[in-house]
Amino acid sequence: MEALLNSSPTLRLRPPLPPSSKPSLSVSTFTPPSTNTRSNPAFPRKSSQFKPKPCLRVCASSSSRSATETAVESSTVPSQMKAWVYDEYGGVDVLKLSSNVTVPDVNDDQVLVKVIAAALNPVDCKRRIGKFQATDSPLPTVPGYDVAGVVVKVGNQVKGLKVGDEVYGDVSEKALDGPKQSGSLAEYTAVEEKLLALKPKNLDFLQAASLPLAIETAYEGLERAGFSEGKSIIVLNGSGGVGSLTIQLAKQVFGASKVAATSSTHNIELLKSLGADLAIDYTKENIEELPDKYDVVFDAVGLGEKAGKVVKEGGIMVVLTGAVTPPGFRFVVTSTGSTLEKLSPYLENGKVKPVIDPNGPFPFDKVKEAFAYLETNRATGKVVVYPVSEEYILEKMAK
Questions:
Q1: CA 62, CA 65: separation in Å to the nearest integer?
Q2: Residue whose C-alpha is closest to residue 58's, from 211, 213, 209, 214
């Protein structure tokens, strides 16, 4: 994982092969658990169909922009698409891969994105099992919040994006309040322009898709907590999707004086590589017995009262899940492309880096397996689905 963080590419494709051969894409070998996941051994790292070699990176650059636009503009948007759908609430088994889902219409303030990669979030799972039915959009649902892809159509009021732009973002402004009925686990998704940003040039689609909801949650949580230069913070579950980015933002963007973070034993070195000054193994130390206190406790686990015991007098606690006890508060992120734009310089200079679970990426036809893995609560960083639209990648390789 440390090697992953120290290099920009997360997944590489072979260079164009002779006409007699076909390009091969990396796939996951994860097998969903057949028994209670709490009793299962750790999942093995994925293996690839080929060994990485120098190759074409799937990302934007000044030299590839014209090729990108040509590839997209020469394609016709179909009326139907492949998408993962569920028409009832429940476990992973309610998910069905359909090949005749209607491509969503584009409103005046929206763009149609050809999805290249998507990422999974715990909120996807909670939504699917019906945790917030009262505020959910109507069934059937195409799930998915995080997206990275290419603009193929723009609404009449769209000013800042054009066909061919490589973008990323969270497709739903509010995760719990009326989220998109047609999300990112599909070949196409319609998204408001204000929710998207141009993909950082040094990131590929896989890396970009891993970021939006998690990095926006981390940033808004730190802002709401009044975090600023010189303050200290402890991040509970620092190896998770939100936690791994909170560590980096606190250190690189907000100027923290001290960053502590917790994880299990095998992720301690990851925490250090992300910038944690103190990496705490929660299997060996009790959080409530730590000698130091912190200005901000960022609780991404749900430790509640235990976490509150390491807050300094006058400090505050950000709670993402579980019970909220003083001096804690809970919030639901409001996604916006402006946050991604604000953080783009830190992504482009490598000070903030995506963290992607090594068992992925999961191919599009293995979304159920990807969710089953996410729900074991053993993922490191983000679980990503890639490629969704494989033909775009092959077109770009051919250019």
A1: 6
A2: 209
The whole-angstrom distance between residue 230's C-alpha and the CA centroid of its chain comes to 29
For the record, the structure tokens of 69 come out as 């636009």
Strands 146-154 and 166-170: antiparallel
- The average pLDDT across 267-277 equals 98
Inform me whether the pLDDT recorded for 4 exceeds 80: no
- Interior/surface letters 46-62, b for 16+ CB within 10 angstroms, e for the rest: beeeeeeeeebbbbbee
DSSP state of 236: E
Q: What end-to-end distance do the CA atoms of the chain give, in Å? A: 32
Determine the Cα–Cα distance for residues 11 and 202; give it in Å rounded to an integer: 13
Handedness of CA 274, 167, 72, 175 (dihedral sign): positive
- As beta bridge partners, residue 205 has none
**11 backbone φψ class: left, alpha, beta (φ>0; ψ -120 to 50):** beta
Rounded alpha-carbon distances, angstroms, from residue 28 to 31, 69, 82, 297: 9, 30, 20, 35
Q: Mean pLDDT for the chain? A: 85
pLDDT value at residue 62: 31
DSSP string, 361-379: PBPGGGHHHHHHHHTTT--
Interacting residues of 278 by C-beta distance below 8 A, sequence separation 6+: 258, 259, 260, 261, 292
Residue ranges of alpha helices (H) inside the chain are: 2-5, 65-73, 122-128, 205-209, 212-224, 241-252, 268-274, 305-308, 337-348, 367-374, 390-398
Q: Tell me 201's DSSP state.
A: T
**Owner of token pair 């059937």:** 140
For residues 367 and 183, give the distance between their C-alpha atoms in angstroms, rounded to a whole number.
14
309-313: list long-range contacts, CB under 8 Å, 24+ apart: 310/234, 312/232
The secondary structure of 303-354 as a DSSP string is -THHHHTTEEEEEEEEESSS---TTEEE---B--HHHHHHHHHHHHTTSS--
Model pLDDT for residues 218-242, shown as the tens digit of each residue: 999 999 999 999 999 999 999 999 9
Lowest mean pLDDT among 10-24, 165-179, 240-254: 10-24
